[in-house]
Design goal:
Number of helices: 15
Order of helices and strands: HHHEHHEHEHEHEEHEEHEHHHHH
Strand content: 5-15%
Largest sheet: 5 strands, mixed
Number of domains: 3
CATH class of the largest domain: Alpha Beta
Mean pLDDT: 91
Radius of gyration: 21 Å
Number of strands: 9
Shape: globular
Distance between the termini: 35 Å
Strand order of the largest sheet: 6-5-9-7-8
Structural class: alpha/beta
């Protein structure tokens, strides 16, 4: 994959994609991070670092909220979230495998800044290679870095919502990794009732660089997939045009039709109108995913499969997930099949709009916004499917990944 941007603050500069950087090499390359936690918070505020897990919340504001509540009572908890439940994403896994010490630097800095006595790294239970890399890296640090605390590794279940902030906290407490109602919010009352800071691992790695006065907040890791020549992870300046990001994957295979930006909670774009849009400025980063769909595949059929998957991945704790998501998935599937009664598009639109804000967590919101995006951006194609039935591309094999079995909640 072509490198788009490798400035000094890039996470992947000098990294080898199939090799883990040792602690010695890490310190030789980056040096030790500063020990002053308040200086780190000030650096985050100046950099305006936003979280890279999907929500894009200001990191410094999270730190100050957790630190303020920890100062009033129970010690804080800090969690590095590397579960990466988004099927199109592989950036967090790559980062943990090649640059684990940057993530662990950020974890230590966060713990010192917010007054945490316990730290955790949350990683997919089936990712044995990453778990091994993390164990080795933690052992190196405990042996050679003064004052290093040993984080606890926790296995995340293979569920889409298992990486949601409150689901992570529930799993740490020994419960099922299902999202819980908020408030209370984790920064006030999270794991075991203590103020809790949950950060995506890319966010923590960028903190490790920002603390060293390197401009890393202006960069983002992006997983490029779908109808591209060479898919994979690249690092770009926030605001890079989508066309340039796709060129990092050596371009598109076939004729591009659509682009899914942000992941399965992201938004659809028409290929012919999106290439000059800035990723992370004109288009939200979301989970750092850019997937290209070519003219041999149908975005309606791809969305139907995605929403069917998301309906099956819900925690089934509320009506919107139990009833509405499966109904929307069935209606979308009917548009791509001659064997089902065609749905009313206005009813599909209304159902997706009514979902937002009514669930126990943000899972139905994300699925509903994806559907609304499809109905808006591809309104003519949806109308053709209603009038004429499925198009010739509806029967093509799935282009975007749909995991076949996600297992339990532990």
């Amino acid at each position: 994959m072509t490198t788009v941007a490798t400035p000094i603050g890039a996470l992947l500069t000098g990294a080898v994609s199939d090799a883990t950087e040792t602690l010695q090499s890490h310190l030789r390359r980056f040096g030790r991070p500063p020990a002053d936690p308040w200086r780190t918070i000030a650096s985050l505020e100046r950099a305006d670092l936003r979280g890279r897990g999907g929500a894009g919340f200001p990191a410094a504001r999270k730190w100050r909220a957790v630190a303020d509540h920890a100062a009033k009572g129970l010690p804080a908890v800090v969690i590095a979230n590397g579960s990466e439940g988004e099927p199109c994403s592989s950036k967090d896994r790559l980062l943990l495998r090649i640059r684990p010490h940057l993530v662990l630097d950020g974890l230590r800095l966060a713990a010192e800044a917010v007054g945490a006595t316990d730290t955790f790294v949350y990683v997919s239970h089936g990712d044995r290679d990453t778990l091994r890399v993390l164990r080795d890296a933690i052992n190196e640090r405990v042996q050679h870095l003064e004052g290093e605390r040993r984080p606890t590794l926790v296995a995340a279940p293979p569920r889409y919502v298992g990486g949601q902030e409150t689901a992570v906290i529930a799993r740490l407490e020994g419960k099922l990794a299902r999202p819980t109602y908020t408030p209370p919010f984790p920064f006030t009352q999270g794991a075991w009732g203590r103020p809790t800071l949950v950060h995506n691992v890319e966010t923590l790695a960028r903190i490790g660089l920002i603390a060293r006065d390197l401009d890393s907040a202006s960069l983002a890791l992006v997983t490029v997939s779908g109808a591209v020549v060479v898919g994979g992870v690249t690092e770009v300046v926030v605001g890079t045009p989508l066309g340039a990001v796709v060129q990092a994957a050596d371009g598109v295979i076939g004729t591009p039709l659509a682009v899914l930006a942000g992941g399965y909670f992201g938004r659809w774009l028409r290929a012919e109108t999106c290439w000059n849009l800035g990723f992370g400025t004109d288009v939200p980063l979301g989970a750092g995913v850019l997937a290209v769909v070519d003219s041999e595949h149908c975005p309606i059929a791809e969305t139907a499969r995605i929403v069917t998957y998301l309906a099956g991945e819900s925690a089934k704790q509320c009506g919107p997930c139990v009833n509405a998501l499966p109904a929307i998935a069935d209606a979308l599937t009917a548009l791509t099949s001659r064997r089902r009664a065609l749905p009313r598009v206005e009813l599909l639109q209304r159902r997706s709009q009514e979902l937002v804000g009514r669930g126990a967590c943000r899972h139905p919101d994300g699925a509903a916004l994806l559907v609304q995006s499809l109905l808006s951006v591809f309104e003519p194609e949806v109308g053709l499917h209603v009038r004429n039935g499925p198009c010739g591309a509806c029967g093509a094999p799935a282009l975007l990944p749909i995991p076949s079995s996600r297992g339990g909640w532990r």
